[in-house]
Amino acid sequence: MSDTFEADGFRIYLSQIEDYPVLSREEENELALLYRDHRSEQAAHILVTSNLRFVIKVALGYRNYGAKLMDLIQEGNIGLMKAVERFDPDKGYRLISYAIWWIKAYIQNYIIRSWSLVKMGTTQAQRKLFYRISDLPEALDREHHLENVAKLAARINVTEDEVIDMQARMRAHDLSLDDLIADTSRESFADTLRDTSPDQEEILSAREEREELKDWAERAMETLNAREKYIVEKRILSDDPVTLKELGRHFGITRERARQIEKNALDKLKWNFISAQAQAA
What we know:
Layout: H1 2-17, H2 25-38, H3 41-49, H4 52-60, H5 69-86, H6 95-114, H7 116-119, H8 124-132, H9 142-156, H10 160-171, H11 200-221, H12 226-237, H13 244-251, H14 255-280
Helix pairs in contact: 2-3, 4-5, 4-6, 5-6, 9-10, 11-14, 12-14, 13-14
C-alpha cells in the first residue's frame, strides 16, 4: 500500500513540474543577475522550478540505497535552492552545472544520516566505499570477482573484506528503474519519465561547441601571466577550488590582492572570448 502511495505521489509530482519551461542561457543569466543583485524572490522561484526535472534524474541514481524516491527528491531540491542562492552568473557556466554538486551533496548527506549501517559508525574510508561500491563490475566467476574486489579495495584504501561486506549489504536494497510502480501496474518507474535526451544533431553540435570552447580556453590561458594562470586553474578550473586566503598565503600577498588578480585574469579571459566571438561573426 505504501509503495502504491509513493508511486502515486511521484506521478503527481512529475505532472506538476512538467509545466515549468526549461530556460535558455540568456533567460537564466538575466534571472540569476536579478536575484543576485536585487534578491528577487520571483527570479529565484523561476530558477529553481525550471531545474526541478534535473533533481529527479540525480535522485533516481541513488534509489538503490533504499531511501524513498520523494525523500531523495526533496533533499535534492534543497540543494538546488542552496545552489541558486550562491550561484554567480558572471562565472559563465549554466546553473545546473554548478547546482549538480549541491544536489548530490544534500542527497548523499541524507542517505548517510538515514542509512542504519552508517549510523552504526563507519570510518571515512568506509563512507567512501559506500558510494563507490557501484564501481565494482559484475563478474561471471568467483576468480574474476575477487580480482575486481582487490582492485577496488586498493583504489580507495580499504580491505577486501570491507568491500565484500559492503557489497552484500547493498545488494539487499538493489532496485531497478524497470521495477513496476505497483503490483497491479504495467508501468515501470522508467515509463514515468519523459525522454528528453538530445538527438544526434544536438549531440554533434554540442560536441563541436565543446571542442571550440576547449581550443579557445587553451589559447586564452596563454595570454595570462604565470600568477594569473595559477589562480584561474586553482580557483575556477579545479574540482576542489582553493580559497583567496590560501592563494594569498601561496604568493605572500593579501586576500584582497589575490581577489584583484583573479578579477583581472577573468576580465582578460572575458575580453578574449568577446573578441573571438566577434571574429567568428
